[in-house]
Amino acid sequence: MKKRTLVRLVATSCSVVLSCYLLHAGVLPGGSEGAVSYAKGKNSKAVVTVSTATDPVVLTGAVIQGGNVVVSAQSPAPPAADDGLYHLLAQNVYENGALGKEVAQAGVGASANFSFPLAKNSANSNLFKKFTVCVKRGGVLVPVSSSRYLTNPEVTATHTAPRAVAGKKGLLPAAELLSGNSLKQLGVKQSIYNVLLGSICSQGGIPYTYNGKTYQFSSGMIAQLDYAFSRMNAQGIQVTAVLLANPGDPSIVHPLSRGGPAPYYAFNTAEPAGVEKLQAAASFLAQRYSGAHGRVDNWIVGNEVNARGDWHFMNTGDLGIFTGEYARAFRIFYNGIRSENANARVYMCIDQQWARASSPKYFSGVSFLSLFNDMMTAEGNIDWHVAMHPYNVPLYSPMAWNNGKYASHSQATPYITIQNIDVLTDYLSQPKLLAPNGQVRSVLLSEVGYTSSQGEPLQAASLIYAYKQAEANSHVDGIIFSREMDAPSEIAQGLANGICGVGGAHKQSYAYFQFMDTPEAGAYINNASAIIGADLNSLLIRR
Question: Which residues pair with 432 in a beta bridge?
């Protein structure tokens, strides 16, 4: 979903008053005493500092073993404690300091292990909690560690079927064509669909009891998803779902996002009712779409999240606050999804604005991704992945192989398009960015499109070039083209991105897409090379 409508961003500066609200609401990052500080900086922006270097106790693990949670801690210089005990708190994502529920104790020492019930899907569930060590001083609990979340929720999942991996070629389907078999005829291997949580949570019809409370989800919206996912699965397609907080149910929308001028908002990680509903929704959706109602292998949390003015609205210009809230939302969805479907992948999402200077409407992709990684690593590294939209710059540029001054192969490139997708995968290949298993995280090019408004041959050549570029990069697990059929609202902006026209007539790109991953691809590559004016294969960058 690219910026096809102008959205005006209001009041993006983050004042000290806002910082105080966030601090007392417990939504700033950090767990131990003194771990979070804020100050009034230039232009009245909040300066947030997270530090774990001085924590007397370091949490080295928080994992599920059998029906229990086991938290491990080390302390080279054990802190003083009135009663000689470590007190382990289980905290909600919006709680910090000494807030939370005590779940275990251990004697103060150089190392400690805490064990207590997981209690999944009960009023006392610890599945979504973070854990912090405290000691008593003067009769009051004082945090002496940063916080850590569970890192292996997948061990509790009942759905363990292998992923439906068929290939990298993907397409955004036309809803009106789902009843047919056009996707199968095109050889589509992956597809994508939006899940509008605001609509799902604002209506009823399907009761779902989770963690001791019963929620209602929209039977009409769920019926649409059942049909779409099942139709795609029936055609041999691996499905990706995009989780979006659209208007509808304000309880799932972050307090700093409500009423904002954008179609999608930041998720509510600041209030108990919203957090609990998101936990239930994550579990419900992952459970439902791991079987008879359809199967979703990939879940994307938000759309082009760094483009906060357009696609993930939150009324703050502070990168630390914004990223911290997103990281908490990601933990909720990750634990909810993976605790039901062990092999599902959960992706964060950025647009093509890589090292471009941040503005009131967006953060640069690299700054957002870097801080997100730091936060996830600090509180327990998990198997998160990256969805990215490598659109041309400008969007209506028809030549995927030539973005001129906008795309280079340097990490300082302002944009990442398909031409320089190696910049992203090289960045993710750094040791500090690797997944817990030591591998480079999956990259899913979940939305990209090329217009035919300047001629169908250019669009056709761009599609096959982009696919071959994705195919040549071993870290890219899919490329999903937008779209099967032109959207009239986009055509007016020069974005005739469909491989079919509005009426369904095939464009030249239709056959290129259909055969780009088949033995017949050679002829289309040769034709594309003639259109490009260079050997297409010589332009590919392999990784």
Answer: none
